[in-house]
Amino acid sequence: MATRIRPVSQRSSLKFYSVCLVDNGFYSLPQSSKRCAVIGGSGFLGRHLVEKLVDRGYSVSVFDIRQSYELPGVSFHQGDLCDKQALLSALEDVSLVFHCASPAPASDDRLLFERVNIKGTQTVIQACIDAGVQKLVLTSSASVVFEGTDVKNGKEDLPYAKRPIDYYTQTKIEQEKLVLKACDQQKGFLTVAIRPHGIFGPRDPQLVPTLVDAARQGKMKFIIGDGTNLVDFTYVENVVHGHILAAECLRADSPICGKPYHITNDEPVRFWDFMSEILVGLGYAAPRFHLPYGLVYGIALLLWLLTWILRPFMSFKPTFTPMRVALAGTYHYYSCERAKEHLGYKPVVSLKEGIKRTVESYPQLRRGA
Ligand SMILES: NC(=O)C1=CN([C@@H]2O[C@H](COP(=O)(O)OP(=O)(O)OC[C@H]3O[C@@H](n4cnc5c(N)ncnc54)[C@H](O)[C@@H]3O)[C@@H](O)[C@H]2O)C=CC1
Ligand SMILES: CC(C)CCC[C@@H](C)[C@H]1CC[C@H]2C3=C(CC[C@]12C)[C@@]1(C)CCC(=O)C[C@@H]1CC3
């Protein structure tokens, strides 16, 4: 392990310096600050984060509405993050909190998103302050600036979406605003938001399972649009790396306080090339025939309206929602230059390697399995 004084930002007029103990590309903290909590730690990203934190010598409290695994060095606290008393017992002696809980985007349940992502996040902030937590790292989303039209190399200074594409995105915007506004260097409560995009990797319950389900139903024959749109897909370990760097760089004198950071693989890829690689890797055919974007989006919108009207009578979940069609047919890739400059971030797993590990991790989803 080496001690290094590194400029956090050399390009800004003021130079910010932080003293970091650098070990394998990570920053190390004194043992006393190595107690943390992960809210949403039973989820896909949360569990990968917990595993890396344990590897890095942290003792971790997981707070989640469900417990999905057991791990030495990890204590589990089952509860709803809207319940402050339940949170307080998990935050005892904790100085650092990661908040990566959210209802799944596919649930499309406005009231649930508002309750958990907005009111629940207010409760998390208040519980952190009451428990004397010093640092809060939020998992936000790069989608907070996405309105369904092309975003190319989007930077963090893009305005929040005025017309977010769904309730999930709408409440992620409010959530991020709340957490960043709560940052108070004078009072010693420091916050930062990580905005990942298109997280994939082993145990993801969303991307690969949805894709394979669609392929098994014969719905993955078509490419929406001309198929040239570039997007970000980010391997889960890179997202974890970004979170830990942010937590360990977050100090009262650092420029990262109260700011959002894009964390990506820094390798934008054609949406349909990425989908095809996963499908072919699992033994399915790649989509080949093109359909006009406007037509598919229109049909998806009509279907969504229909399911909304019929909701009291029947439940039907279309594969091609307006949100998925927008994501499949537009450019949405983001710059992670600010994270490189301020956090010393660089992806630790390439897209190619990430796809390989992901495909290998789903033997049960292979064609014919
Ligand atoms: N998966 C993706 O591509 C992206 C995810 N994100 C964000 O990353 C975070 C983690 O997402 P994933 O791991 O993919 O989702 P996930 O659904 O696997 O994990 C979310 C966890 O939050 C927990 N949770 C939900 N409501 C709760 C409540 N009321 N109280 C306590 N725990 C609750 C769930 O039980 C689950 O374990 C979320 O904040 C999401 O918005 C951001 C960008 C992309
Ligand atoms: C049926 C196919 C057209 C699409 C199948 C794959 C999709 C399920 C995924 C492709 C892009 C993904 C994505 C997200 C969820 C899964 C996809 C729609 C997010 C919405 C997850 C939450 C976020 O914050 C943004 C993500 C953007 C990309």
From TrEMBL:
From which residue to which does any coiled coil extend? none
Q: Which GO terms describe its cellular component?
A: endoplasmic reticulum membrane; lipid droplet
**Under which EC number(s) is this enzyme classified?**
1.1.1.170
Q: Name one GO biological process term.
A: cholesterol biosynthetic process
Superkingdom of the organism of origin: Eukaryota
Q: Where in the cell is it found?
A: Endoplasmic reticulum membrane; Lipid droplet
Enzyme class, one word? oxidoreductase
Q: Which reaction does it catalyse?
A: 4alpha-carboxy-4beta-methyl-5alpha-cholest-8-en-3beta-ol + NAD(+) = 4alpha-methyl-5alpha-cholest-8-en-3-one + CO2 + NADH; a 3beta-hydroxysteroid-4alpha-carboxylate + NADP(+) = a 3-oxosteroid + CO2 + NADPH; a 3beta-hydroxysteroid-4alpha-carboxylate + NAD(+) = a 3-oxosteroid + CO2 + NADH; 4alpha-carboxy-4beta-methyl-5alpha-cholest-8-en-3beta-ol + NADP(+) = 4alpha-methyl-5alpha-cholest-8-en-3-one + CO2 + NADPH
Recorded metabolic or biological pathway in which this protein acts: Steroid biosynthesis; zymosterol biosynthesis; zymosterol from lanosterol: step 4/6
List the Gene Ontology MF annotations in alphabetical order: 3-beta-hydroxysteroid dehydrogenase [NAD(P)+]/C4-decarboxylase activity
This protein's membrane topology, according to the annotation, is: Single-pass membrane protein
Entry similarity comment? Belongs to the 3-beta-HSD family.
Summarize the subunit comment: Homodimer.
Q: What is this protein called?
A: Sterol-4-alpha-carboxylate 3-dehydrogenase, decarboxylating
